[in-house]
Here is the input.
Amino acid sequence: MVPEKTCDGILGLPKVGLSLWADIRMSWPRVLDENVGWELKIRTIARATNEGDPAAALAAALARPFPGIELFDRVPDTVFFIKDHEARYVAANETLAHRCGFPDSRALIGRKASEVFASPLGERFEAQDLKVLAEGLSIRGRMELHLYPDGGEGWCLTWKEPLIDAGGLIRGLAGISRDAPALSGSAAPVSAALSATLAYIDDHLDEPLRIPELAARAGLSPFQLDQRIRALFGLSAGQYLSRLRIGRACDRLRHTNAPLRELALECGYADQAAFTRQFHKSVGLTPGAYRVATARGRKRPLVGARL
Here is the structure.
């Protein structure tokens, strides 16, 4: 049996019910009503693929596809959204609508991030969406600055996950952006230099990343950098780097058939042996076993996957 300790469990992802929506089996493509800017209608309500599919059964009983969105309307420091394969909003909470100057969340439906957020941030967020949809790479706790129509701004931590159908195809994405907590001993919640450093880490996981050098980029001492990362993510700086590397590996193992030696280098490990040791230590499975386990349930397994 596959151990209960899975990759997502060690990544510290927010468990906010995303798996519920990811498991809902929708007919595709989703055809939006021509009044898309004001009322979300999906012409075919989700049907259970079998009698044992409780998520689809609940969606069908409620006559709407995304049960539970109301919960996010009651969380004022968190933006929630679901987007389709073209990066258009198909669901969002009221917090996002109010922050971006829209009368309610229905006004967001059918729009893309470039039509919701001010330029150039809107275009940057949309490009990020398209990358998630094209490559299946998750975004985990990326620090972003959000600018709002009223002139306000705020730092947020953003998570995005691709939504995969039963055949293993990416059909959309779901995500949240949570207001970054204030950092102890800092005059501002987070600095642009720290945000840039966290983005640099995410973009250079295939390179050696040393804490003193990263701290210098952020204008901090190694101790200060560690304390700020602990305040944001509840992890030491070293644990944070390891989490990102293993998370990148999990994404690639799920969505590509790249050989393990290539994945090892892409995720910043010196060789396949070092990669396999760290992956097994973190996940409880070897990379090859994880690839096989996550391939189960797909209609078509990854072709040519090398274990």
About this structure: The chain has two domains: 1-180, 183-299.
